[in-house]
Batch of 4 targets.
Target 1
Amino acid sequence: MGNRAYLEGVAKGTVPAPPISKLLGFRLVEAGDGRAVFELTPGEHLYNPIGVVHGGVAATLLDSAMGCAVHTKLPDRGAYTTLDIHTHLVRAIHASTGVLRCEGEVVHMGRSMATAQARLVDAAGKLYAHGSSTCLILPGPGQS
């Protein structure tokens, strides 16, 4: 199964989601050509000591959406790793925020490096976080 087909299967529920999805309670809902979308319904179980959802949760969603967007563009069995991620948290997230949607897209896809961006918004389109990422493209098994 190719990279894009794998992610499409996760989004459809025909392929098991990675364990991090279950741990944090987010789900891949869409995967396509250079695009990946995750959703999360925040809860108090994700709160930090000051009573809001931990910023690391937003960063994880952004990183997941951007990385999976890149993953959809790779050749079968190709791999990547995040080199850097820039996260901008612009609004606090609470259990009362409702469903959040994180949309990631590839900005540039090169032979050895890719860049991507993502936005985390609520149902009304209000922005909670946004970010960008650089990914190193790695050869898959048997590739050089």
Note: The chain has one domain: 3-138.
Target 2
Amino acid sequence: MTTFLSRKALFAITGAALLVLLVVVGRSSYVQAALKEGQKFDDWVVACEKDAKKKQVCFLSQVLSSAEDPKQKVAEFRIARFDGKDIKMIQILPFGVNLQSGTSIISGKDLLSPGKFTTCQPFGCIAVADLTQGDLENIMTNETNAVGVIGADGKQTNIILSNKGLKEGLEALK
């Protein structure tokens, strides 16, 4: 009779230990994900959103504000790895840009990947540019980077793109 009770007790203790282990492991990955959200890397911040498939996608974000009114957002650049490999820059730009001309990522004197506008929403127009590893390295090593757009007036405007913290931020997203 005592061996039966000890087996029951051993089974209960083992089950409880496994349950505790599952909770600890599950919570540690949740805590780690929570630490990434909002983490700053100089001019870049980690942000996360759920995609159409309800999967959490984290990206680096850089928000540029108006010099006259710091509360007014002028543009936002987001860099993320999609499907674990493709690197894209999502550019959220103000209204009044020429959609047909798209955007250009400019690094130093080099024109990198073009951006194609996909849609305009109440918060601005969205363009997406595919980035290669070489494009990223170019952006990270050049001091002057920008996203160029053509305004409704036909003149090009270059919106500054900072590379401060980009390398470290991309490493954190891996």
Note: Residues 2-36 form the longest helix (35 residues).
Target 3
Amino acid sequence: MTNGDGKAMVASQGVVFGELKKHWAWLLLLGILFIVLGSIGLGMVFGLTLISVLFFGILMLVGGCLQLINSFKCKGWKSIFWHMLMALFYIFAGIIVICDPVLASTIFTAMLAIAFICLGLVRVIMALQLRGAKGWVWPLITGIISILLGGMILAQWPISGLWVIGLFVAVEMIIHGWSYIIVALAARSAA
């Protein structure tokens, strides 16, 4: 990795960070902004849940409308009926989500909890098949955590539908912010 004085390591870091070495402070500020916004989001998880679900509904509605418009430009295509039907499903689902974001958030949360439980079970099974191999316990631990998380969400359902999505978005923003800060500080030290 190095030729004894660390020059190869510094050169490879320069390639990794490129122009970020000069502008690391902007990434640092962006990271701080994400942490602040995520922290604010932790204080208003219900509102963040509704905003996230409404945004998803709007995306579905816009996507469905664009797909429907596109279907009129595809004359002669044998699958045009199915293309239009999918567009109508997107439009319908988007309208339902926009009209009742609370119901949509509870349904999404139940689906998320079930997905966590299923993924957790798969991880546990995989870990048990790998038993004896180095590191097999990590998929087991993450599988158990996923099952517990899904179970906790379902145990609180439908009330959990009012806060889980907002909580996940807020936590994701905080983690994202910290990762930007760490990368920015690494780029600064590489400069």
Note: Helices lie at 7-17, 24-42, 45-71, 80-99, 101-129, 137-155, 164-190.
Target 4
Amino acid sequence: MTRWKNILVVIAVAIAALLAFTVGYWAHHSMRPAREFEVNTRDTAHSKVLIATQRSAFKDSIVSAVVAHLKPLAVYVKVVDVSALPQVHEADWDAIVVIHTWEMYKPQPDARRFVSRVQDLRKVVVLSTSGKGTFKIDGVDAISSASEMIDVPKRVAEIDARVDALLNQ
């Protein structure tokens, strides 16, 4: 009887440890909603750019740098959480930047659905982040990256170049 009791204790401890690890990993790595804000005014801007993102140190750094690039150009910029994408009408924007993460080998659902319903994918710039930095939504010419802070300047340069090309058409 004592042998079975010891085995059950070991199994219970293993399950508790696995559960604690899972909860800790999820709490540390899961995406939080992005803070919504606007830069410049819609009425006086010659171009409009929407940035839909998720909140993390990496993504926040990307958004801050892209916004800093667009602000002096008198471009109206609106930043929203990716969960707002179902309400976005692509015709309202000259460029749409979607920054999302892959979790459990799947893209963020709102980002995936938005990209699948967009009529003109040429006006959408997508940055997909994943652990290895290699995942992209099928059929999309996306930028892919791991969320490494050292890569922020390179990813910002890629996004800025694509947005500038869209705004200068």
Note: Helices lie at 2-29, 57-70, 109-117, 152-167.
